[in-house]
Amino acid sequence: MNASPKPSKVVVIGGGIFGVSTSVHLARLGISTVLVNDGPLANGASGRSLAWLNSARKRSDAYHRLRLAGIDRYRTLAARYPDAAWLRFDGGLTWDADDAGNEIAEMFDHECALGYHAQWFAPEDVARVTPGIDADAVTPQGAIFNPGEGWVDLPSLIDVLAREFTSLGGEIVTDAGSATVEVEGARVCGVTAADGRRWDAESILLAAGAAVPAIVAETGQEIKDATPVALLVRTKPVRHPLKAVLNTPRVAIRPTPNGGFALDSAWSEEEVGFKPDGSYDVRQSTLDGLLREASKVLEGNPVLEIEDYGVGPKPIPGDGEPVFGELPSIWGYFVAFSHSGATLGLIAGELLADEIATGRRHPLLADFRPERFSPPEG
To answer: Which of 8, 39, 161, 276 could form a disulfide with 43 if both were Cys (CB 3.0 to 4.6 A apart)?
Structure first.
């Protein structure tokens, strides 16, 4: 199904990177667009993302191609903002645990076969290519350095895109509470906020992060969901030479625009619990543990202090692949639901805006349509 070409009015639900990116691309196409969010912009997963720009290790060919296109768009943006502290391409370094599961040699061969720029270094050589590493922390199998990788601070990027969006005549509505998509017959007709405000729409994009599957379920359709909890810790500024993104067995690290570090890991996310009132329970021991693990892999083992942290759902579809495009059987109802919001943020917004505006399906999104979760007819 294709939506009617060139809608005169679009409403985007969600103030994260997918919602804001699509909104600005629609505005560039001259389409009247309203962005509605339940709180301030970047209040969801985009505000607590490590935001590592990469296509390292193994994934489907289609996903790899889409991620490469995503990185390409960031390079264009970096040329536009060469001095931005919120977007850097200083490479990425990864190593695995020293056990039977170490895949560094296999991953190096895989990335080289794809033409993905990868260099394999012994522990004693790592600091030469990536200053700021404690070489003793690198396992004997060595590490892969990917020179073309980088990072983005999504709240900063969202602010830049939002200012462009409003300068083009776009409208941003924040703190609107939950939004309801109105469907009449077999097509969308509008969006109503929790406070009763309503906007007519010929097309809508639902980019509400982890809430997407539940909202889509209201239409009787399904998007399989595997969303876990994410925890991102930001440290206070510290004088340190590290510029690359690190992905290590116990902690992932990237610099932040103010001179600190952003930290996350799988084990720390698993330690997040829930209080009786349903809010998240983040133990001080977990936060301290992340700081210790980060210090261990950094040159000089600096003392790191917490500036703040974010905790909440990390949107991941049930099969791990992105979900982009129009829902089957409902004209004009588009969705964006994916992990890797940072890497895909610009390209997804561009392609979704084009699909909404023209009704033409882009081949880069062919494998990521929401109808893959629909049961076969008959």
So the answer is: 39
Q: Please, which residues have CB within 8 angstroms of residue 192's CB and are 6 or more apart in sequence?
A: 179, 180, 182, 198, 199
Per CATH, domain 87-150+227-313 is 3.30.9.10:
yes
Reduced 3-state DSSP string for 171-221: EEECCCCCEEEEEECCEEEEEEECCCCEEECCEEEECCHHHHHHHHHCCCC
pLDDT tens digits along 254-271: 999 999 999 999 999 999
CA-to-CA separations, 129 to 116, 143, 178, in angstroms, rounded: 18, 11, 47
pTM of the model: 0.96
The structure tokens 């768009």 sit at 73
Query: Cβ atoms within 10 A of the Cβ of 233, count?
Result: 26
Which residues make beta-bridge pairs with 13?
A: 36, 206
DSSP structure string for 243-254: -SEEE-SS-EEE
Task: For residue range 128-173, list pLDDT tens digits in order.
Answer: 999 999 999 999 999 999 999 999 999 999 999 999 999 999 999 9
Q: How are beta strands 143-146 and 198-200 bridged, if at all?
A: unpaired
Taking the CA atoms of 156, 159, 164 and 170 in sequence, report the sign of the dihedral they define: positive
290 burial (CB, 10 Å; 0-12 / 13-18 / 19+) is: buried
pLDDT confidence bin for 3, thresholds 50/70/90? very low
What is the Cα–Cα distance from 179 to 10, expressed in whole angstroms? 14
The predicted structure's pLDDT at residue 376: 66
Q: Where are the alpha helices (DSSP H) in 89-136?
A: 104-114, 123-129
CA–CA dist 219, 242 (Å, integer)? 48
Can you give the residue ranges of every domain in the chain? 9-46+155-224+318-373, 87-150+227-313
Residues 350, 26: Cα–Cα separation, whole Å: 8
Under CATH, which number does the domain 9-46+155-224+318-373 receive? 3.50.50.60
Kindly give, in sequence order, each residue whose CB lies less than 8 Å from that of residue 297, ignoring residues fewer than 6 positions away. Answer: 133, 134, 137, 246, 248, 250, 251, 253
Closest CA to 243 of 232, 252, 256, 229: 256
**Contact at 8 Å (CB) between 225 and 271?**
no
